[in-house]
Amino acid sequence: MNEAELLYRENVRLASFFAGRFVHRVPPQYREDVFAEAQLGLWKACTRFDPRKGRFSTFAARYILNEICGFISYLGKAETTVSIEAEITGGDSLVLGDLLGYEQDFSAVEVRNALKDADEVFRLYFGGLTQDQIADRIKCSQAHVSRRIKKARARLAAQLRG
């Protein structure tokens, strides 16, 4: 057994500790993935650790946290689609559309027409750019981009509701 494998086996509980701190932030179907990402971060730390630079646990914590936070960030950016007809309660017949107050689904054409008048920042955001990339492109701060996206979402929602 080489040195990296030995470090991994001795510190696998460290990965579980950090994963346990973040597991509540993800949907239940991704909880095992948080633990897997933590273990991946631990393995990366094991293969890159230099004992002359300090304690392993301190070094590994950065790698583990980076992997977990990167995964959670990826989940937040992943595109999800929810039907307006999706049930939101177990036994009742209450659906998402009832909660939101929508009486109809919106077609792609309706959304596209509403987006024609939308802010350039909003279109870039829905085009797949991150807020940082948009800020670089239009020469402003990320916080300013975030505020413009929030306002554009509100306007779009008002347009779609009628």
Explain the layout of strands and helices.
Layout: H1 3-22, H2 31-48, H3 56-77, H4 96-100, H5 108-116, H6 120-126, H7 131-138, H8 142-161
Helix pairs in contact: 1-2, 1-3, 2-3, 7-8
Your description of this structure?
It is a single chain. The chain has eight helices and no strands. The chain has 162 residues and is mainly α. Helix 1 packs across helix 3 and helix 2 crosses helix 3. The longest helix is centred in the middle third of the chain and has 22 residues. It is elongated, with a radius of gyration of 22 Å. 15% of the residues are buried. The mean pLDDT is 77.
Attribute tags:
single chain, 8 helices, 67% helix, mainly alpha, elongated, 162 residues
In short:
By secondary structure, the protein is mainly alpha-helical. The chain is built from eight helices and no strands. The mean pLDDT is 77.
Tell me what portion of residues adopts beta-strand conformation: under 5%
Order of helices and strands: HHHHHHHH
DSSP, total strands: 0
The biggest beta sheet reads: none
**Mean of residue pLDDT?**
77
Structural classification = mainly alpha
